[in-house]
């Protein structure tokens, strides 16, 4: 809502491309909407793929989901908006070249470092999710290896 809705106004859209408001829109729409949807689809497939092999738990996946969302909200609140709106104002006042220059970014150093606060839960979520994928896929590997070795053995025998 705050990303795409504000960027659609022609006057804003013309000036804001290449600013942190574009980063806000890209991160929240690509990962927040489509990325989490894709991860949900992966979990749906894992549930059915591993159903016969082990008991399925959503605990780690849900924790990763909420950590991803917390990271996104922290990025928006502590980095994208606090840099993006003054940057858009700088584009209006002094032009895009200034707003993309080190001179402008030197005025937002604190907000640049606060990006890390959102990076931490996002990275923890990625590690949790990867660990959860390995846990859910591990029981499938022996079955796949056995099936492949049987098929491979059947092809070689006369």
From TrEMBL:
UniProt-recorded name of the protein: Nitric oxide reductase
One Pfam assignment: COX1
Provenance organism: Burkholderia pseudomallei (strain 1710b)
Gene Ontology molecular function terms on file: cytochrome-c oxidase activity; heme binding; nitric oxide reductase activity
Keyword Transferase: no
Uppermost EC category: oxidoreductase
InterPro entries, sorted: Cyt_c_oxase-like_su1_sf, Cyt_C_Oxase_1
Transmembrane segments: 26-46, 66-85, 120-145
UniProt KW keywords: Membrane, Oxidoreductase, Transmembrane, Transmembrane helix
UniProt-listed Gene3D superfamilies: Cytochrome c oxidase-like, subunit I domain
One GO location term (cellular component): membrane
GO BP: aerobic respiration
EC identifiers of the protein: 1.7.2.5
């Amino acid at each position: 809502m705050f990303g795409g809705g504000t960027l659609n106004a022609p006057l804003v859209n013309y000036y804001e491309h290449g600013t942190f408001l574009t980063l806000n829109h890209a991160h929240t729409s690509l990962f927040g909407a489509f990325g989490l949807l894709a991860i949900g689809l992966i979990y749906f497939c894992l549930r059915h793929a591993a159903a016969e092999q082990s008991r399925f738990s959503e605990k780690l996946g849900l924790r990763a989901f909420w950590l991803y969302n917390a990271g996104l909200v922290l990025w928006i609140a502590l980095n994208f908006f606090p840099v993006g709106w003054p940057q858009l104002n700088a584009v209006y006042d002094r032009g895009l070249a200034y707003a993309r220059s080190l001179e402008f970014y030197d005025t937002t150093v604190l907000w640049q470092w606060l990006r890390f606060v959102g990076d931490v839960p996002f990275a923890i979520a990625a590690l949790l999710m990867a660990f959860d994928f390995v846990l859910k896929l591990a029981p499938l590997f022996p079955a796949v290896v056995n099936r492949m070795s049987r098929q491979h053995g059947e092809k070689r025998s006369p």
